Amino acid sequence: MKTFISNIILGLCFLNAILVFAQSEKIDQNNLSSTNLYNTLKETKSGNWKDVFTDFMQASLKDLTGENKSLQFKANLFALKSKADNSLLIDYNYAREKFSRNFQIEVGLDLDNDYKFKGFNYGFDWAIVNKRDSTVASLTKTETGELFDAISSEIMLAFNKYRNDSNPSDEEIIQLKQKIDKILEEERYVPKDQLPKEIENLVSQNYGQLSSKFAHSFQAEIARIKRQPLLTVGFNSNFQKDSKFFDEYNVQMVYLQGIKSDRGSLEIDFRNKFRAKDSITTSVLKRKEFSSQLGLNISLMKVKDRSIIELKPGFEYTKIFSGLAENEKDNIFTANADLRIRILNNLWLPLILKYDMENNNLFGFLNVSFNFDAIKDE
Q1: Same-domain check for residues 191 and 293
Q2: Are 314 and 293 within 8 A, CB to CB?
Q3: Which of 164, 193, 300, 320 could pair with 309 in a Cys bridge, judged by C-beta atoms 3.0 to 4.6 Å apart?
Q4: How far apart (Å, rounded) are the C-alpha atoms in residues 41 and 29?
Q5: Are both 205 and 325 inside the same structural domain?
Q6: How far, in Å, CA of 312 to CA of 52, rounded?
Q7: How much is the pLDDT for 282?
Q8: Signal sequence: where (predicted)?
C-alpha cells in the first residue's frame, strides 16, 4: 500500500510539472468569423477527442507491436448517408440529422503477428450527450453575435457617410459594397487598420474597442464549446474462425470534459468498460472483467493553434470476475500514459503505456490513426 501511495504522489508531481510547461492556447485572429467557426473548432480538436468520436471517417492500425493487431475503420453514420443522398449536405437537412451525426459505425480486421487475417471486428458508438457538436455551432444569440451586430452598424454608417460625402462613382460604390457584404456575410473580425481604405477613417472611435471585444469573445466561445461534455456509449465484438458471434464483446462508456485553464488545453477523460470472452472450445478460459480509468489529456505543444503533441497520464483499475490466468490477481492497478504525436495534418501516432504498479511490469501499445477530412470541406 505504501508503494502504491508513493506512486500516486510521484505521478501527481509529474502531472504538475507537465502543466507548468504546457502551452497556452491562442486562436489565429485572421480566422475569426462565424462561417469559419466549424473549421476553427475542427482544426483545434485534440487527437484524443478525434479518437473517441470522429468528425467524418478514421482509419487506424492498433497494437502494431503486440499480438492483437487490428486494422479498424470507423465512420460517422451521417457521412455514409450523405454519400447516398447529397441533399443531406444542405444546411436545413444537415441540422435535422442529429442522431446520424452522433452515431458512428466501426468495422475492422484482426491480424496475427505476421499481419495475416484471423478474423474481423465490428461495433458502434453513440454520443448520447454531445454539447461539442461544432458542425451546427453558431454565433447567433451569443455575446459574440451581439458585438458583431454593433460592428456591422458601425461599418454601414461609415459606408453611407462615404457614399453621401465623398461623391464616389457608381462603380466605386459597387466595389466597396461587395467588400463590405463579404465581411458581413462571414461575420468576420476586421481590425480598423484592415478595413477598406474608403471607410477606415469614417468609423467611430468605438469601432476599435468593439472589434477587440469581438475577437476576445470569439476566442472565449471557441474555448467554451471545446470544454463542453461528450458522453458516448458503445459496443464492440469480433468474429474469428471456430467461433460464433458474441463470443467476445466489449461494452464501454467514455466521458470527456474540458477544463478551463490558462496553461493550455486540458480534458478529463473517464472510461468504463465491461469485457466478456467466452468460447465454444473448452481450452479457452471464459473471462469477464470490468475496467475503469481516469486520465487528464494535456496538449503539450501547438503549432498554428493545432495540437501537435499530447500526453494523457492517468490510472486504471481492472476487476476480473472470472477466467483468471495462472498467478493472475483479480484486482489490477496500472498507471497509464497515452502519448500522441501529430505526424501530418490528419495523421496521428498514439503510443499507449501501462505500468503495473504492484508487479512492476510495463506494457506498450503503438497505434496509427488517420482522420479523413470532414464533409464540410468537400
Answers
A1: no
A2: yes
A3: 300
A4: 13
A5: no
A6: 14
A7: 45
A8: 1-22
User: Quick one: cell of 186?
Assistant: 462571414
The one-letter code for the residue type at 311 is: L
The pairs formed by 114-122 with CB atoms below 8 angstroms and a separation of 24 or more are 115/69, 118/240, 118/241, 119/238, 119/239, 119/240, 119/241, 119/243, 120/238, 120/239, 121/70, 121/72, 121/236, 121/237, 121/238, 121/239, 122/236, 122/237, 122/238, 122/239
Which pLDDT score is estimated for 125?
96
Decide if 307 contacts 333 (C-beta within 8 A): no
Cα–Cα distance for residue pair 246/9, rounded to 1 Å: 41
pLDDT of residue 74: 92
- Give the total number of structural domains in the chain: 2
At which of 203, 221, 239 does a domain end?
A: 221
Residue 306, all three cell numbers: 493545432
Sign of CA dihedral 267, 47, 104, 221: positive
Compute CA distances 267 → 103, 156, 230, 255, 371, whole Å. Answer: 22, 42, 11, 10, 20
DSSP 191: -
pLDDT at 160: 92
Q: Which residue has the cell 462615404?
A: 162
Q: 212-233, pLDDT tens digit by residue?
A: 888 888 888 888 888 899 999 9
Question: Under a CB-based contact definition with an 8 Å cutoff, are residues 199 and 155 in contact?
Answer: yes
What's residue 293's pLDDT? Answer: 96
The answer as to whether 175 is a domain residue is yes
Q: How far apart are CA 296 and CA 336, in angstroms?
A: 11
Consecutive 10-residue averages of pLDDT for the chain (378 residues): 47 46 49 61 83 89 83 88 74 75 92 83 94 66 81 90 90 91 79 87 87 83 87 90 73 94 85 83 71 95 85 95 85 94 88 83 83 56
Task: Pick left, alpha or beta for residue 235 (phi over 0 → left; psi -120 to 50 → alpha; otherwise beta).
Answer: beta
Whether 317 and 180 share a structural domain? no
Question: What does the block give as the cell for 315?
Answer: 490510472
297 touches 284 (CB < 8 A): no
